[in-house]
Write a structure and sequence with these properties.
CATH architecture of the largest domain: Alpha-Beta Complex
Keywords: NADP
Strand content: 25-35%
Shape: globular
Number of strands: 16
Structural class: alpha/beta
CATH topology of the largest domain: Quinone Oxidoreductase, Chain A, domain 1
Largest sheet: 7 strands, mixed
Protein name: Quinone oxidoreductase
GO molecular function: oxidoreductase activity
Distance between the termini: 12 Å
Order of helices and strands: EEEHEEEEEHHEHEHEHEHEHEHEHE
CATH superfamily of the largest domain: Medium-chain alcohol dehydrogenases, catalytic domain
Radius of gyration: 20 Å
Pfam family, one: ADH_zinc_N
Organism: Bradyrhizobium valentinum
CATH class of the largest domain: Alpha Beta
Helix content: 25-40%
Length: 322
């Protein structure tokens, strides 16, 4: 089968053996894949958790149909239209754990379904479970114009946040954040953004920051969070290391929470997918929670899809079809 593999000469389409499902695995015939920022790093040979390096089939998000079941797989049958996440997604067939997938709603095509699994699982966990957002509270999403950021704002609004603030350093994308739930859009490269947040929250700061940037905005985040507020760190687009004001962290008594899928067990991931199904799935089926598709590429042009992602001018998801 064809797959997008990181090899000695970089990432390229190659012929590899079709996998077979074992245990609780499901073999998926892939129809569409969503690109994610971590994929871009892996096309350059960077590791993502324990995955990466020569021989790695790239990709982590897909939509397709069940082709075969492992002996212990439950909850789906051959032919079911599904979407999910996991490694080796950029291929004609991929394997998925039966607890790491969703049934694709009948009112979505494969391209639309492929945009959702990573964003739904990541940001429901960050905003609702780890972030403990309650109706009537305020939230700031750092890096809000990314696919997962757009979903985070929508989930926050759906869960009853009274004030949703989104950040983007790109003027065009910042101008569109209100379409996806933002009441206020800020530029995190503007030194005055903290004052804008404080003004919007009567000087108190937000209840919750979901931070995909970290690095250079770490201390500003502390200043923009209310006393006894919460910061959920889900990324490092602004760098992995930076100065950190421990005194301000202590003075504001902020609960600083780190989350990632890279160190989660499959049992933990299954629980996250279960929470999405239980809490917000009707909003997915009604299309209240959805992501825009920026561009669709055929699989043969997946290299161009990554060039488009690296140019960083898109809003919404880049999708590849098979």
């Amino acid at each position: 089968m064809k797959a997008y593999v990181y090899g000695a000469n970089g990432a390229e389409i190659a012929e590899i053996a079709k996998p077979s499902p074992k245990g609780t695995q499901v073999l998926v015939k892939v129809h569409a894949c969503g690109l994610n920022r971590a994929d871009l790093g892996m096309t350059k040979g960077h590791a993502h958790g324990s995955a990466g390096g020569v021989g790695t089939v790239l990709g982590m998000e897909w939509a397709g149909e069940v082709a075969e079941l492992g002996p212990d797989a439950k909850g789906v049958k051959v032919g079911d239209k599904i979407m999910g996440s996991g490694g080796a997604a950029f291929a004609e067939y991929t394997l998925a754990d039966h607890g790491r997938l969703f049934r694709a709603p009948s009112n979505m095509n494969f391209e639309e379904a492929a945009t959702l699994p990573v964003a739904l699982a990541t940001m429901h966990n960050a905003v609702v479970t780890s972030g403990a957002l309650q109706a009537g509270q305020s939230v700031l999403i750092q890096g809000a114009s990314s696919g997962v950021g757009l979903m985070a704002m929508q989930i926050a609004k759906f869960k009853g946040a009274k004030l949703v603030i989104g950040s983007s350093t790109d003027a065009m994308r910042r101008g569109r954040l209100k379409e996806f739930g933002a009441d206020l859009a800020i530029d995190s490269s503007d030194p005055g953004w903290v004052d804008q947040v404080l003004k919007a929250t009567n000087g108190e700061g937000v209840d919750l920051i979901v931070d995909q940037v970290s690095g250079k905005v770490a201390n500003q985040n502390l200043a923009a969070t209310k006393v006894k507020g919460r910061i959920v760190n889900v990324g490092r687009l602004g760098g992995t290391h930076a100065d950190f004001n421990f005194d301000l962290h202590a003075a504001r008594r902020i609960n600083y929470i780190g989350v990632t899928f890279r160190t989660r067990t499959i049992e933990e991931i299954r629980e996250i997918f279960d929470e999405v199904r239980k809490d917000i799935w009707p909003a997915v089926e009604s299309r209240k929670l959805q992501l825009p598709i920026d561009t669709v590429y055929p699989f043969a042009e997946i290299g161009s899809a990554f060039e488009h992602m690296e140019a960083n001018k898109h809003l919404g998801k880049i999708v590849v079809t098979l």
